[in-house]
């Protein structure tokens, strides 16, 4: 089995090219390159969550309903999801450096246009462009880091990238709320402009394409360039409409909506056709053959699950603190921010360990810690204090720090350099779709389970229940009345308890699912720490 896996992952280039790639080093310090490409990626990931809290302000400022304003989020996610798997093909077509610079320029320009948009329609259009530009940044950066650093230092390099990807979603809502409260919602887009300009300037003279990529691109251009138009169309339809379903499903009551059913049908057809078509093509726009590589396929699935938990819990914890505990948006942000700081401190340590410890064992540790942390969050109740919430988030963050970088390292262990661009697009797509699915699952589960628990609790609110009569008398003494005010107070408490139980169900579910993923690490191939594991 391992022989076949190695042969599948073996590069199609001649040995000379592999040797040339092995001795290639960039002109500038690799760590400066890593910081340069992380700048724009951090802002791009931040933009996936920073606009959430500003929706009421956007709706009011553009004379639109809040439901219409949600297209500001959906449009960005749709175009972002479509471009992610296509980024490897565009990197080969344009050259990775120029594709990355194009994405930075488009992201920066469209951010400015979003900030000055006079109507909701134009804002949605500019958000589509922003998503196209932003979608190419993460996979390009990951491929750049994979080529710039030798395997021994790759874990530390991915740690820098991980700081951007893991911490940005956590601070996005807090930063977005602060900006809209103190300045104006348009500044959530304007803050991208100076960062994008600096990134574009540094990228222009620090980045360069490795020789193997230049050679492969020249060979492609000498022959008749085949554009996989049908592949692009199928991928765009499948992923675009899937993102609409995940983002709008709960709001439109899922299958009760004809719009959601139509979008789901188009998405399913597009994805099925895309998979069938891409496996038949000699030069596919999305290289799905990478999923035959056992380590990459398992790593992509694990990254998908990390996206589910990372963004799902990022929604759950602040919502619980605000809706149930009565925290302000700022207080909720302060409760989850230490977790982001802990991740920033742990990632370099994790990157260092990856030079000495097998990545799959570190993934196992991360899965176990995250699973236990989520199960620990099932102890949340309305009596917990601020410190308890902070420590619970830090417990979970410690597990995520041991997942993101090791999973990326394991994914590239048996991927030939010529496939780095395609691999980056697929693994980032897995995380983004997982994140969208995670948000969709938790919002739906919260709503359904809250209804379930409320119905069960209401069954006990009868005069025949001594505990209910005692609670009613206590409420009457508290409000100074035994009339409707007492029943209203009991109802609020009942709804609060039902909501708390629904959050507990979500934490339990995610914790158990994450624990069940641990056996997958034993299916991954052994890769020596700090050494390329590809067959020669």
Note down, in words, how this protein is organized.
The chain is built from 22 helices and no strands. By secondary structure, the chain is mainly alpha-helical. It folds into 2 domains: 2-226 and 282-454 and 497-523, Growth Hormone, Chain: A (Up-down Bundle); 228-281. Helix 16 (294-324) runs antiparallel to helix 22. The relative contact order is 0.13. Mean pLDDT is 77; it is low at 1-22 and 532-536.
Short description:
Helices cover 78% and strands 0% of the residues. It is mainly α.
- Stretches where pLDDT falls below 50 for ≥5 residues? 1-22, 532-536
Class derived from helix and strand content? mainly alpha
**Number of domains in the coordinates?**
2
Q: In whole angstroms, how far apart are the ends?
A: 17 Å
| Percent helix | over 70%
| Averaged pLDDT | 77
Number of strands: 0
CATH topology call of the largest domain:
Growth Hormone, Chain: A
Please give the CATH architecture of the largest domain: Up-down Bundle
Strand content: under 5%
Topology:
Blueprint: H1 2-9, H2 15-23, H3 30-50, H4 55-61, H5 66-69, H6 71-94, H7 96-116, H8 120-135, H9 137-148, H10 151-182, H11 187-190, H12 192-206, H13 211-222, H14 229-248, H15 258-280, H16 294-324, H17 329-353, H18 359-377, H19 386-412, H20 420-458, H21 466-479, H22 484-516
Helix pairs in contact: 3-9, 3-10, 3-12, 6-7, 6-8, 6-14, 6-20, 7-8, 7-9, 7-12, 9-10, 9-20, 10-17, 10-19, 14-15, 16-17, 16-19, 16-20, 16-22, 17-19, 18-19, 18-22, 20-22, 21-22
């Amino acid at each position: 089995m391992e022989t076949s896996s190695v042969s599948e992952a073996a590069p199609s280039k001649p040995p000379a090219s592999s040797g040339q790639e092995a001795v290639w080093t960039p002109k500038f310090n690799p760590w400066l390159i890593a910081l340069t490409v992380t700048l724009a990626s951090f802002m791009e990931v931040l933009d996936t969550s920073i606009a959430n809290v500003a929706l009421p302000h956007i709706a009011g400022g553009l004379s639109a309903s809040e439901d219409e304003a949600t297209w500001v989020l959906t449009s960005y996610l749709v175009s972002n999801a479509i471009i992610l798997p296509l980024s490897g093909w565009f990197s080969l077509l344009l050259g990775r450096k120029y594709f990355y610079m194009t994405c930075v320029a488009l992201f920066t320009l469209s951010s400015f246009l979003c900030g000055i948009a006079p109507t909701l329609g134009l804002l949605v259009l500019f958000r589509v462009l922003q998503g196209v530009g932003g979608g190419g940044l993460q996979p390009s950066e990951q491929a750049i880091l994979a080529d710039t650093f030798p395997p021994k230092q790759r874990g530390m390099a991915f740690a820098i990238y991980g700081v951007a990807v893991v911490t940005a979603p956590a601070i996005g809502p807090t930063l977005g709320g602060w900006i809209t409260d103190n300045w104006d919602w348009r500044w959530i887009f304007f803050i991208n402009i100076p960062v994008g300009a600096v990134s574009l300037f540094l990228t222009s003279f620090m980045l360069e394409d490795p020789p193997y990529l230049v050679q492969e691109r020249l060979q492609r251009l000498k022959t008749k360039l085949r554009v996989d138009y049908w592949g692009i169309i199928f991928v765009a339809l499948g992923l675009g409409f899937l993102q609409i379903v995940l983002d709008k499903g709960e709001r439109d009551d899922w299958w009760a909506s004809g719009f959601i059913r139509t979008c789901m049908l188009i998405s399913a057809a597009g994805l099925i056709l895309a998979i069938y078509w891409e496996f038949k093509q000699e030069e596919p726009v999305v290289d799905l053959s990478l999923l035959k590589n056992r380590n990459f396929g398992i790593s992509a699935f694990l990254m998908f699950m990390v996206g589910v938990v990372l963004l799902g819990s990022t929604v759950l914890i602040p919502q619980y603190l605000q809706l149930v505990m009565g925290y302000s948006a700022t207080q909720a942000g302060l409760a989850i921010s230490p977790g982001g700081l802990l991740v920033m401190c742990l990632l370099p340590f994790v990157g260092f360990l990856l030079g000495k410890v097998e990545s799959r064992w570190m993934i196992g540790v991360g899965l176990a810690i995250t699973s236990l942390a989520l199960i620990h969050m099932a102890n949340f109740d309305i009596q917990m204090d601020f410190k308890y919430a902070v420590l619970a988030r830090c417990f979970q963050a410690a597990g995520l720090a041991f997942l993101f970088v090791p999973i990326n390292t394991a994914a590239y262990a048996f991927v030939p350099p010529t496939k780095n661009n395609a691999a980056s697009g697929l693994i980032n797509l897995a995380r983004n779709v997982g994140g969208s699915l995670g948000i969709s699952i938790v919002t739906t589960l919260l709503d359904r389970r809250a209804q379930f628990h409320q119905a069960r609790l209401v069954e006990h609110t009868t005069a025949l229940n001594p505990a209910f009569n005692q609670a009613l008398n206590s409420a009457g003494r508290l409000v100074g009345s035994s009339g409707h005010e007492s029943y209203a107070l009991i109802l609020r408490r009942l709804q609060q308890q039902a909501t708390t139980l629904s959050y507990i169900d979500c934490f339990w579910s995610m914790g158990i699912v994450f624990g069940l993923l641990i056996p997958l690490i034993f299916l991954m191939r052994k890769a020596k720490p700090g050494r390329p594991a590809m067959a020669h």
